[in-house]
Amino acid sequence: MGEGPAAYEVRYGWTGPAVRAALLSLFLLGLAFVPGLPVWAATALGAMAAVSFLVIAVPACSRRVALRVGPEGVTLGGTPFGDRTEHLAWSEVASVEVRTERSHRLLRTSYVGVRHRTGSAPPPPPPSDAPGLRELDAYLATQVPTEFTEAFRGTVLSTRATTLWPVDPTRLSTTVRAFAPGTRFFGPGGEAS
To answer: Which of 77, 95, 114, 130 is the most buried (most CB within 10 A)?
Structure first.
């Protein structure tokens, strides 16, 4: 007897960027013990290094669910430092995206985002009546299909950085299409690669 598609689940853990950041934190912690360093500098460096190591190590060792895409919807995992876990039913989800942002020449951070109706997040602020926004709306109305804009009206974007967990965009795209064929996927293997 054939079973349906498998859920896609990723847990927090030790990824390459997390290991590099943890090693850098430990190196800085070691520098705090260099003889001849002023006490105030050693204390500041040691505290900063220890806190940054804990910020990386606690979630990585927790093995908590970071992302789950299944028949019930999408779960974006929380962290001990602020992000709360969000459970979003497919009826609320408008799109799923995977994107990479370059904050520096050497640093790239990937994100998974879920655009959803305001069932579990605060509603977006009302649109402004600024003339520039009205002009932008008028221009976009000529460039973007109406059904595309309507699909995203009244939605918010919940995102999580994927520094402490690996994401496979191809498997994620396949899973989203299997459980919610009408949900848009943006990223590698999706509508806007």
So the answer is: 114
CA 118/CA 94 separation, integer angstroms = 11
* Helices and strands of the chain, counted as H and E runs: 5, 8
Rounded Cα distance between 134 and 56, Å, is 43
Which has the closest alpha carbon to 10: 128, 163, 129, 146?
Answer: 163
pLDDT single digits (tens) 36-87: 999 999 999 999 999 999 999 998 898 889 999 999 999 998 876 677 889 9
HSE toward the beta carbon, residue 187, CA cutoff 13 A: 22
Query: Rounded to whole angstroms, how far apart are CA atoms 10 and 25?
Result: 25
CA-CA distance, 82 to 76, in Å (whole number)?
13
Cα dihedral 42, 48, 53, 56 in deg (nearest 10): -170
- For tokens 């943006």, what's the residue? 186
Joined tokens for residue 100: 């990479």
Half-sphere exposure for 53 (CA within 13 Å, toward CB): 15
Q: Are strands 65-70 and 73-76 parallel, antiparallel or unpaired?
A: antiparallel
Distance separating alpha carbons of residues 149 and 133, to the nearest angstrom: 15
Q: Which pTM value belongs to this model? A: 0.76
